Amino acid sequence: MNDLLPSEVARWHAMEETIREVVRLHGYREIRVPVIEHTPLYVRSVGEGTDIVDKEMYSFTFHDEPMTVRPEGTAGVVRAYVEHAVHTKEPVSRFYYEGPMFRGERPARGRYRQFHQAGCEVFGDPGPVVDAEMIDMIVALFARLGIKDVEVLVNSLGGKGTKAKYREKLVEYLTPEKDALSEDSKRRLSTNPLRILDSKDPRDQAAIKDAPSVLDVIDDDDRAHFDGLRRHLDKLQTPYTVEPRLVRGLDYYSRTLFEIRGRGGELGAQNTLAGGGRYDGLVEELGGPATPAIGFAAGLERLLLATELPAKKLEADVLIAPMGERAAGEALVIARELRAAGVPVVVEGRGGSLKSMLRRANSLGSAKAIVIGDGELDRGVVQLKDLAGHSQKDVPRAEIVLAVKS
Ligand code: AMP
User: Fold this and answer.
1) Does 56 contact ligand 1 (Cβ within 6 A)?
2) I need a surface site. Which of 32, 125, 179, 255 has the fewest CB within 10 A?
3) Which fold, 318-405?
């Protein structure tokens, strides 16, 4: 879990502004939900046998109620969608969220225990048009953030029927290999066999290398949906690769699945920038009406590692440097006038030499400084310094706001 000091937060703000702008252009509105939910919500949606539910959740009991600090955003948003019967108010909902998520993973560069995600969810649209649009939006967003070297991986898990058929086929294939699997995956073979495809354990990787793919058993409707997605991506000229073994670590997915990976930069092994997919059964599973849905989440720490986005270093446009006690009082009044006119101002209240005060202006990134001493006060003026142009002039006290703004 990281502290973010103000110098870093400036980069976060720049990134968050870009994300908000892009999702707004795609018709998404922000939803804010609690960071704590009842534990069973995650067990039912993310799923038993997943690393998140089995090992990584920060769970606790509060007055006999099992609670969990959210490991991901979708479950809470779906809970809110159902609880507020949003489907009765609008046929299609496009939600955007952003905030901290918590998983007790082993920390590494780009992998933290408190990290931040921005994500979108669409309810009430079966796709595949919206699926292609969502993938295109993420690629466009990354390009705006200066992350152009990305790889888009897509797959389809199929719907309920396909998923069940595939599970059977996979168990059939892996059962003779059982002894070669990791301990976790031996267990998963009976509880949640698809999770074995997600395993990073080299023993499991070897065993699944030639395993059958979902696309071998996908039924006609699911195949048509997937082909539709691919046609739209082709039309958009969004390059992608079909990755038949992509399953992703959450249970609720069905049909479209995708992942966007970055290449190069400081990402190293943690190069999955965003991932998502369709979860057509989850709203119903959590007590709502049958509602098709799709969503994704992007990891903000990883986006920052991948982008060159410069920090906007601007803490105050203007520094006021009062020379002495009488000038300090006047400085506070001038600062108030400037702020009322929308100009960010800092008063250097510590005193000291003019030189040291101007050094402070420099470190704040201020373009201008206002210097006031007893002489200026007596003459009814202030000294306005243009720090970049190294020029200065006296400005009548009454005209200072106008002079700074021009
Ligand atoms: P997921 O919710 O697992 O599908 O992850 C979506 C995205 O969140 C990933 O592609 C990462 O960018 C990010 N992410 C997931 N887990 C972590 C973590 N522990 N630390 C930092 N980012 C993460």
Assistant:
1) no
2) 179
3) Rossmann fold (3.40.50)
